[in-house]
Amino acid sequence: MNRLTDATSPYLRQHADNPVDWWPWCPEAFAEAARRDVPVFLSVGYAACHWCHVMAHESFEDEQLAAFVNEHFVSIKVDREERPDVDAVYMTATQAMTGQGGWPMTCFLTPDGEPFYCGTYFPSAPMRGMPSFRQVTEAVWDAWRERAAEVRESAATITGKLAEHASPLPRAEVDEAAVDAALGTLTAEFDAETGGFGGAPKFPPSMVLEFLLRHHERTGSADALRLVQRCCSAMAQGGIYDQLAGGFARYSVDANWVVPHFEKMLYDNALLLRAYTHLARRTGSAQARRIAEETAGFLVTGMRTAEGAFAASFDADTDGVEGLTYVWTPAQLAEVLGAEDGAWAVELFGVTEQGTFEAGSSTLCLTEEPADRDRFERVRTALLAARANRPQPGCDDKVVTEWNGLAITALAEAGAAFGRDDLLAAATGAAEFLLRVHLIDERLVRTSRHGVAGTAAGVLGDYGCLATALLTLHQVTGETGWLERAGALLDIAVRHFRDDEGAWFDTADDTERLITRPADPGDNASPSGAAAVAEALLIASALDPERGYRGLAEEAVQGAGVLARRAPRFAGHWLSVAEAMLAGPVQIAVVGADRELYRTAVETAAGGSVIVRGAPGQAPLLEDRPLLEGRATAYVCRGFVCDRPVTDPAQLRDQLVRQE
Asked: Quick one: pLDDT at residue 660?
């Protein structure tokens, strides 16, 4: 056993019995490398990563190879989900050196942490022009032994270049012109045939969908809505969506959404739940509502931990085989369902004798929305029960603050939109857990496992996403405690993650110093930390204008103007925040206990609107807003302009529906 035995990360614990003498990321590891005057071998990955598992089996479990590595290097294993700051710094170096990135990430560093050789997966034997991991380690050691001064000088130069490119982008407004330009670019890049953007592999564009939907709601753009509907429908019917249990896989390996890379990530499902909820609310789409409620069900029943929070991910592999749990043959369907229902399922799910995946097996896609819903539910229930008897993929059950924040927001919004108190209860329970376990001396930690807090400090995304979640709970419940806790998190973020020039960094100014201080403005699989904080600041400014957050939100969004114009696919969350800002955001205060008045507000208001209900004076947005003639009353404001208060749901709907 090595030093990973007691790690809170399941990914690190997977390597605890490797013959490689792993260290966790810590100052002691670098001190050991300096004492021995050897390079550091840094390996970064995550539990649901298929090729991380492959490299582990091929190389890290090889006794002879491990003996060589142990003799000539100090080896550090990092979970990128637990330490996104470390991952960001060395991924930038890897991309700069190789022109590409990915996981597993393999880096060789000086004892000062400066990188001098980087790559990703290396096989156990040379293949297709790629050297083996043994060849790489031998070459690195030879270079260190024979040209140590030259290697150190090169590493210092690389580190200097990384620091030069870490400066923020120039400031630019995300105004109407920028939003229109982004829409034009996205429309041109959209795959009109199969939905989404780009070819294979194809990733769910969750944050871009949210922006497009908000843009449609604010401007009436038919093009924006068309893109959302086409993409959401294609994904809902594809193999990327789990047609039996609900929930989405990380991405599709083909351009048609048929064959997923089977891992399921909490952040994807939280963000897509939010997008489908808003689409269902806006259009009344039965398909969108079904996908939203099934995805919410997957989160609550499939990803919730014993402590009431949400696990990070499910693996792509089952017993080392991708898709083993999820794929079917026609014969297997008939065996479970019988001949008649089996033949019906073959047609409905697009299962063929040749197979759409591997070895004659197929993923389950919907060829059409089933007209016979009762039969569909019966078949699906039977198949899911049979699938439960198969080997199951591993679960990374660590709790990540940022991703739980995304899940809390999505579940609370879905609970309000669909009248599902159970979803709101799940969101509330997760928030209470995070505040109890992840908030220590008013500072967040990044992760926990089995109710035990990890040691990694929270990054900017943790503060932004959790603050947004608490603000959402305040809106849905009317309880001011959520608002106060969110404000405290935002104050910490402003104090420790923002510099005097208004730039936002992903790490706090009083936490561990890396070779560069990461500050990635781009949205990737989840919102950038700065975009997440910008959303929270904007919402908080509308809920409690006296806190002075509006200027900070506007300043943050200006930092994304260049990105929004040049690469809107990586600025979806920024553009969503900008849409809410351009709309006001719309503020709706429902004073009194009229359930119908509140439901009208929830069902009709555009995404990004702020809605609070409660007794007069119960929350800042409810102050100086009395009941009219003793009846529950709704107050609608946009910026500094307010409509007349109304007590009739139909009148409120008229105020909220955009006049064409």
From this structure: 35
CB–CB of 611/590 below 8 Å?
Answer: yes
Instruction: Classify strands 641-642 and 633-638 as parallel, antiparallel or unpaired.
Output: antiparallel
Name the amino acid, one letter, at 128.
R
Query: Are 598 and 613 spatial neighbours (Cβ–Cβ below 8 Å)?
Result: yes
Q: What is 23-91 written as a DSSP string?
A: E-SSHHHHHHHHHHT--EEEEEE-TT-HHHHHHIIIIIT-HHHHHHHHHH-EEEEEETTT-HHHHHHHH
* Geometric angle at alpha carbon 255, from 129 and 225, rounded to 5°: 145
Structure tokens at 473: 């709970």
Contact 418, 345 (CB under 8 A): no
CATH of domain 10-164: 3.40.30.10
Question: What value does the mean pLDDT of the chain take?
Answer: 95
For 179-190, write each residue's pLDDT tens digit.
Answer: 999 999 999 999
C-alpha–C-alpha distance, residues 9 and 400, integer Å: 10
The CATH class for the domain spanning 176-316+396-582 reads mainly alpha
Q: What is the DSSP-derived secondary structure letter of residue 436? A: I
Asked if 274 contacts 410 with a C-beta cutoff of 8 angstroms, the reply is yes
Calpha distance 241→255 (Å, rounded): 14
Task: Give the model confidence (pLDDT) of 466-496 as tens digits.
Answer: 999 999 999 999 999 999 999 999 999 999 9
Question: In this structure, are residues 195 and 234 in contact, taking their beta carbons and an 8 Å threshold?
Answer: yes
Residue showing tokens 């759409």: 356
As a whole number of angstroms, the distance between CA 563 and CA 571 comes to 6
Buried b (16+ CB within 10 A) or exposed e, 313-335: bbbbbbeeebbbbbbbbbebbbe
Residue showing tokens 């004659």: 360
Query: Would you say 47 and 10 are in contact if contact means Cβ atoms under 8 Å apart?
Result: yes
Residue 176 has pLDDT above 60, yes or no: yes
Tokens 């409810």 found at: 622
Provide the total of helices (H) and of strands (E) in the chain, helices listed first: 25, 21
Cα separation, 530 vs 533, whole angstroms: 5
The sheet carrying 641-642 orders its strands as 610-614, 586-591, 633-638, 641-642
Q: Is 598 helix (H, G, I), strand (E, B) or coil?
A: helix
Measured CA to CA, the distance from residue 92 to residue 90 in angstroms comes to 5
**Do residues 178 and 172 touch, judged by C-beta distance below 8 A?**
yes
CA angle 56, 61, 67 (to 5 degrees): 120
Encoded tokens for 149: 């001064």
Q: Where are the domains of the chain?
A: 10-164, 176-316+396-582, 326-390, 584-656
Cα distances (Å, whole numbers) of residue 227 to 181, 222, 577, 591: 16, 9, 19, 37
- Helix or strand or coil: residue 636? strand
Q: Assess contact for 109 and 155: CB atoms under 8 A.
A: yes
Residue 392 φ then ψ, to 5°: -110, 150
Cβ atoms of residues 20 and 106 within 8 Å: no
